[in-house]
Amino acid sequence: MSSPLPERRLRAAGAAVLSLLVVVGCTDAGTTAPPDVTALAGKRLPPPPRQAPPLQYVVLYRDGASDLASPTSAAGTTWLGRMKYLNGAVYANVRNPAALAADRNVASVVPNLVSYPTEAYPTDALYWTRNWQWDMKQIRAEQVPTTVQGQGVRACIIDSGIDGTHQDLAGKVVASESFVTVANGYPGPGPSPAPLDSNGHGSHVAGTVTTNGIGTASVAPRAQLMAAKVFAATGGASLAAIWDAMSWCVDNGADVINMSIGGIIAKSNPVFGLARDIYTAQVDYARQHGVPVIVAAGNDDFDLDPADTLEVWPAQIPGTVTVGATAPMTSTLFPFATPAPAPVYDSKAGYSSYGADVDIYAPGGTNFINRVQSNIVSTCSSYRAGCSGGRLYWAISGTSMATPHVVGVASLILSRTSMPRDLARTIAVEHCLYATGDPITITGATSTDVRPRLNAFRAATEACAGI
Questions:
Q1: Which residue is catalytic, options 73, 166, 198, 201?
Q2: Is 201 one of the catalytic residues?
């Protein structure tokens, strides 16, 4: 891997102990960063989420009545002021609204709920306006209705953590946990340090799923994030950490899981069967609770053939949605002459694995590190050394980057449904992803397949069974 992010893979020799069976790391290919951005067209860090003052109520008076001199709901009720056009007022500290409603001058009493702007797709985001986010246009993300933006959906990112202080991720992270316990990145049981993203990979992945629309546009602008940290700045993550993180995601209300990680194991390894069974059980646990598990296919340009002597995990674990990467054709130079969406952006990325066990493809970027605009631009963790000094965004390519596009679209689908959190919901979301994708031909060294390429607009608007 040509990025500064480390990669470790377990090949035929394998490790002999289960706790360190598969070492996994980021699956990103070539990497480079956009120029430093210290001022974004006057945009500032979003304020904290707004909350309605406690116990406020709107009191509408009967015809001919005026403000209540002595509200009878409870001691301490405070009159905040008249409404401009309706015959009513707002009261605070209302602890007994029923008593207030019983006043002969009152027609009705309702909570003073807070609403927020229903913004359109954030087409004023800096890198969107610079036309660098070809990936979002290729999947038609900007055409998704404002009523289907991932609202109420929690995407759990099993990765290196998420920088929740980033201006585009502020307010997005609703839960976090670290499963890293030793500095070299091989986690095990014990106390967990704070889940800061010193690696940067997890924050980049998260920013494709959802952002505040300041520097980069995202697939599901109203989705929320859960950060499960399983690898640190260096090294990889053990199966123990990954499995533990999967359970944490499900048990803490995740709706979809992103796993932009991968490791290779030989079927001849003595613990292959046992470890695979446990991994499969963890995926099944998530799916039984309505949580699709969406994973990267890997960057080894492998034919993921189930008959091979090697397997890539979690890409070839049963029940996962395995994502390959597409990229602009190598002859496509920036500025792009052809507006996306267009077939010119649907080539298999040279690094991307492919084959029978890959379910769907999504934009992952080119493996030419000097063509930054052809990579996936997303958020850069301020805790990562390469992202300090005001550099807020960077560009990476890889199946790691393709995977959160699919997680974002799964979030759109999930925001459309009221199905209970069970296996039927999982299957419905998976089938909707596949059915609404645009068929493309993927050609690898040993096979040619037709697979769906993600389409956010179709997934958000077309009828899907069970959704």
A1: 201
A2: yes
